[in-house]
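pls design
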C-alpha cells in the first residue's frame, strides 16, 4: 500500500536536488573567481530567494488538488492551475521589482538581482508544471529534464563567464535563460499526454490553492526575508571571508534541504491517495520519513569535509565546520516539514507551518544576545539549529495532540 512513498520521494528529491544544484554550481564557479563575486551573488540571490520560496509555497496545494481530483476532470484542473500560476508569476515579478531598491547601494548586486527577478516568471510556471507532472506519475520525466538543464547551466555559466566581465552578472544571466528553456520539454510532455495548456477559470480553485499554501507562504516570507536581512547585515558588518563563507553555507543548506522537501511532497501525495486504515498508514509513513531524514543527515555529515574542495578547490576547516553544523539545521527542519505536510493533508494547514518561524524569531535573535562560540558565523548557525529544534518539537507536539481526532478528509482549515 505504501511501497511507493520512498521511491517517489527519492525521485522527487533528486529532481529538486538537481534543480537546486544550479545555484550550487553557480556558487562553486564564482568561488573559483573570487570571494567578492561570491559575496555579491549571495546578497542578490538570497533576496531573490524570497520570491523563489514564495512561488514554491504558494504552489504547494497543487499536489493536494490534483491528488483528490477525478481522472475525468484532470485536464480542467490542469488548465485552472496554469491560470493560477500565471497570476502568481505576475504578482511575484512585480513585487520583486518593487523591492529592488533594497540593494541599490551596490550596482553589481542590483543588476544581478534584476536579472534574477526576470527569471521569476518562468520559474513559477515550471514549478506548476513539475507539481502536476509528478502527481500524474511522470516524475521520472521531470527528473530527466532537470538533469539536462543542470548540464546546460554548467555550459552556459562557462560561456558567459568568458564573455561577460562581471562573473556575477554572467551567472545570473545563465540562470535566467535556463529557467526559461526548461519550460519547452515540459510543454512537450503535456502535449504528448494530449493535455491542452490553455489557462481556464475553475471556480474556487485559486482560493483553494492559496488557502492550502498561505500559512506556509507567510512563514517562508518571514523565514527567507529574515535570512536575506541577515546576509545583508553580515555583508555590511563582517569581513569578506565571513560573508562569503556564510553565503556558501546558506547555499549548501538550501541545496540539501530540498532532499527533505521532496520527501514532504511524496508524503503529501501518498497520504492524499490513501483511503484505508488511515491512522496506521500515517504512522508508517512518518516512521519511513524519519528514517529517510536520519539516513541523509548522516550521509552528508560524513562527506562534509570533502565539500570545500567543490566550493573552493581546496580544503578549509572553517567552511567544513559550518557545513557540519548546518546539517543539524537542515535535519530538524526536515522533521518539521514531514509533520507539517501530514497535518496539511488532514486539514490543519494554517498553524503548523508557523512553527518554522522559531528559527527567525527565536534562533537568530538569540545569536546576537548570547555567544556560545567565538566564531560569529558558527554562533549564528548553532542558534539557527536551536530554532529549528524548537520548530520540530512544536510540530510533533501539535501532531500528537490532534492525532486522535484526525479523519481522512482534505478539508481546509479556516
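designed seq:
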Amino acid at each position: 500500500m505504501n511501497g511507493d512513498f520512498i521511491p517517489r520521494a527519492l525521485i522527487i528529491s533528486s529532481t529538486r536536488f538537481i534543480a537546486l544544484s544550479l545555484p550550487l554550481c553557480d556558487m562553486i564557479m564564482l568561488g573559483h573567481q573570487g570571494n567578492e563575486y561570491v559575496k555579491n551573488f549571495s546578497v542578490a540571490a538570497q533576496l531573490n530567494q524570497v520570491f523563489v520560496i514564495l512561488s514554491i509555497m504558494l504552489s504547494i496545494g497543487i499536489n493536494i488538488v490534483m491528488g483528490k481530483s477525478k481522472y475525468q476532470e484532470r485536464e480542467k484542473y490542469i488548465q485552472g492551475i496554469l491560470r493560477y500560476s500565471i497570476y502568481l508569476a505576475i504578482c511575484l515579478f512585480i513585487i520583486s521589482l518593487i523591492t529592488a531598491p533594497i540593494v541599490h547601494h551596490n550596482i553589481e548586486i542590483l543588476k544581478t538581482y534584476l536579472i534574477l527577478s526576470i527569471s521569476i516568471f518562468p520559474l513559477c510556471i515550471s514549478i506548476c508544471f513539475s507539481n502536476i507532472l509528478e502527481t500524474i506519475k511522470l516524475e521520472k520525466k521531470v527528473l530527466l529534464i532537470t538533469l539536462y538543464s543542470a548540464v546546460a547551466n554548467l555550459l552556459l555559466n562557462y560561456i558567459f563567464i568568458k564573455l561577460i566581465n562581471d562573473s556575477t552578472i554572467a551567472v545570473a544571466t545563465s540562470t535566467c535563460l535556463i529557467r526559461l528553456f526548461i519550460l519547452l520539454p515540459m510543454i512537450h510532455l503535456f502535449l504528448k499526454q494530449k493535455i491542452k495548456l490553455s489557462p481556464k477559470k475553475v471556480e474556487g480553485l485559486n482560493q483553494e490553492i492559496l488557502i492550502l499554501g498561505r500559512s506556509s507562504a507567510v512563514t517562508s516570507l518571514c523565514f527567507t526575508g529574515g535570512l536575506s536581512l541577515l546576509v545583508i547585515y553580515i555583508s555590511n558588518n563582517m569581513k569578506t571571508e565571513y560573508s562569503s563563507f556564510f553565503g556558501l553555507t546558506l547555499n549548501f543548506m538550501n541545496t540539501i534541504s530540498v532532499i527533505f522537501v521532496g520527501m514532504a511532497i511524496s508524503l503529501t501525495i501518498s497520504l492524499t491517495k490513501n483511503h484505508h486504515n488511515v491512522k496506521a498508514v500515517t504512522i508508517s509513513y512518518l516512521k519511513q520519513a524519519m528514517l529517510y531524514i536520519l539516513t541523509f543527515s548522516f550521509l552528508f555529515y560524513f562527506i562534509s569535509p570533502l565539500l570545500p574542495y567543490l566550493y573552493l578547490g581546496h580544503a578549509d576547516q572553517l567552511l567544513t565546520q559550518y557545513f557540519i553544523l548546518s546539517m543539524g539545521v537542515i535535519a530538524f527542519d526536515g522533521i518539521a516539514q514531514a509533520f507539517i505536510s501530514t497535518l496539511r493533508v488532514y486539514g490543519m494547514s494554517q498553524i503548523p507551518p508557523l512553527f518554522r518561524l522559531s528559527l527567525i524569531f527565536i534562533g537568530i535573535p538569540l545569536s546576537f544576545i548570547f555567544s556560545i562560540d567565538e566564531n560569529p558565523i558558527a554562533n549564528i548557525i548553532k542558534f539557527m539549529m536551536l530554532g529549528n529544534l524548537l520548530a520540530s518539537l512544536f510540530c510533533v507536539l501539535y501532531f500528537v495532540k490532534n492525532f486522535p481526532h484526525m479523519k481522512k478528509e482534505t478539508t481546509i482549515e479556516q
